[in-house]
Amino acid sequence: MDNNSQLSMFSDPLRGNNDIEKDSKRNAVYLIALSNLDGVGFSTIKTLFDSYEGDFSNIWNNSKDEVYKYLQSSKIPNSFIVSNSIYSLSKEDLKVAENQYEILKYNRSINIVFKNSAEYPQSLYDLPHPPTWLFIQGDSRIVHDPAIIGVVGTRTPTPMGLDSAQRLSVDLARGGFYILSGLAEGIDAMGHQVAVDFDIPTIAVLGHGLDIIFPASTSILRQEIIERGGAVISEYLLKDTYARERFVQRNRIQVALSRAVAVIEGKQKSGTAHTVRFAKQVKRPLFGACIGDILQIPQHELLIDLIRQSYPVFDIGNQDNRNNLRTFLSNLVPKDQRKYSHGKPHLFKGLIKEVIRLSENYDANHNDFSWLIDQISNYRDGRSQ
Which range of residues forms the domain containing residue 356? Predict the structure, then answer.
């Protein structure tokens, strides 16, 4: 029995079934199986998916020569070797991939969401070239929320920029918005950290596969995002490493998922500048947030450009400006559309969980709690002076 017959045997039980979950699972298993093959990467698999009407099993309805010719016309490197590799795929390979799929979904909370499926975020269709699929770790429902605000900026912010990112993110958290960013150091990390500190979900979009931890300094933060009901997203295959162009492309996903995009700091030639360009392309509202004078600081070049182009830039160190920002956001997303499905933000909620953990692990007694209450009271009294 040849490999082609083996594949037909594997896929027939799911073929023709209208159950969306089973159709998505079949495609996900094929995607994983293809990604396991030597020489078959992101571009090849995307080309195959787009070419065969969003159903990977359709590949084997064609001869190997036909697949080779198509890959060659699509300028896939080493097309002959790649087509041979694809046609070496066996029923056993697919069983291995199905087991990997089960581990991803049920052990690691990773879903693979394909374009044109019910789970795919509608906002991504605003892009000229929407991602063909998304790997989503965590709660995939959050990406459909109308109250997502992108917070973007440089990896090397000024102290003023970090302060601006923190103050803006606090306002967003308390105001019922989800914060979306790219899990890079600097401005991105600050936005996510505020969400984590307030124990609310946040969304991180990566420029590499979910199995890659980059930068290493954000590894703990990334885990906390998942634990608090957020989501970490990538269009790249699990083991795809980072590259400049991939970070640029992930910026378009950040923009499309966001109801509006907040720019904190960034130079005219930077990744943040690409994000601004994508926002204009898909007509997402743009605004800037800063504290004090933004002139004469290179990281504020994009904010100065926004002002020149009549986009609002709010000095959130000024209470009137902060109120104006809240009005601006309310006009974009009315309050009744800002509904945290995971509960309201509470700054000390994470601390309470830690107190409970310590109490249970060490049989905390009355004296332990009295001491904690005294410490909190002393801090509040000192702060009020």
Answer: 349-384
